[in-house]
């Protein structure tokens, strides 16, 4: 078992190095379309290295232009979503400190936000509206932190205003990680005192994971209030996960 874990860790390190090289040598001159293809391809391969099989739940198509919101379970979430359709993410500042991966997601266009920093929030909000106005796909985790599987925390409403100002729909995305029997996978939760390294070791050393992603019906933002959008997105995701 230790040999298998060491081999998986070595493959992960090699894949991370490949990502570093791509970001350093290719991203500076690559256009948006090429960047998205590279991000999607790298994310798919990362899931493969981690023995995570992506399963699309039948339902709505993934919109190419929308404000995407999802429940937040693990550091894997960003890569599961990017494997389907790359997004520009807004994520908590703590992610930037993750070894190597934090730098990689920053190079992929992720914007980091510090909790309680209103000035930072205003600046990021303006950037989101501009990105959405340029027909880019933007995503964030409105819970503001990771939650145990089976739980969807209340959604913070502030950033939903960007969809209203940019006149784009909100598309909820429900994420779940299950084992071979269809139950919540015990290795994926990233809460409490679990460190990033602890999480990687648990995932690589545990049983294979199935990541289920469900794109839900878009919610029109025109004429809505940000709190209404946040609650509607929360209820849609909770319902898709059987928590409604």
Automatic annotation (TrEMBL):
This is 1-acyl-sn-glycerol-3-phosphate acyltransferase. It comes from Massilia cellulosiltytica. It is an enzyme of class 2 (transferase). The keyword Lipid metabolism applies. The lineage of its organism: Bacteria, Pseudomonadati, Pseudomonadota, Betaproteobacteria, Burkholderiales. Keywords: Acyltransferase, Lipid biosynthesis, Lipid metabolism, Membrane, Phospholipid biosynthesis, Phospholipid metabolism, Transferase, Transmembrane, Transmembrane helix. Pathway: Lipid metabolism; Phospholipid metabolism; CDP-diacylglycerol biosynthesis; CDP-diacylglycerol from sn-glycerol 3-phosphate: step 2/3. Belongs to the 1-acyl-sn-glycerol-3-phosphate acyltransferase family. Residues 66-178 form the Phospholipid/glycerol acyltransferase domain.
């Amino acid at each position: 078992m230790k040999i298998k874990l060491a081999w998986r860790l070595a493959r992960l390190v090699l894949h991370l190095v490949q990502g570093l090289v791509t970001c350093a040598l290719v991203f500076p001159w690559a256009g948006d379309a090429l960047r998205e293809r590279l991000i999607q391809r790298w994310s798919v391969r990362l899931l493969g290295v981690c023995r995570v099989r992506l399963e699309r739940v039948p339902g709505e198509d993934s919109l190419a232009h929308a404000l995407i919101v999802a429940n937040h379970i693990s550091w894997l979430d960003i890569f599961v979503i990017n494997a389907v359709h790359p997004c520009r993410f807004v994520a908590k500042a703590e992610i930037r400190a993750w070894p190597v991966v934090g730098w990689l997601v920053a190079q992929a266009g992720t914007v980091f936000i510090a909790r309680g920093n209103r000035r930072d929030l205003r600046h990021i909000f303006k950037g989101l509206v501009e990105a959405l106005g340029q027909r880019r796909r933007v995503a964030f985790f409105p819970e503001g932190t990771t939650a145990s599987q089976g739980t969807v925390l209340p959604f913070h409403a502030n950033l939903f205003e960007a969809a209203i100002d940019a006149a784009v729909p909100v598309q909820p995305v429900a994420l779940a990680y299950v084992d071979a029997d269809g139950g919540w996978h015990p290795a994926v939760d990233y809460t409490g005192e679990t460190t990033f390294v602890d999480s990687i070791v648990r995932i690589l050393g545990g049983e294979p994971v199935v990541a289920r992603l469900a794109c839900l019906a878009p919610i029109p933002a025109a004429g809505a209030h940000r709190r209404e959008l946040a609650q509607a997105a929360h209820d849609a995701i909770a319902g898709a996960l059987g928590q409604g």
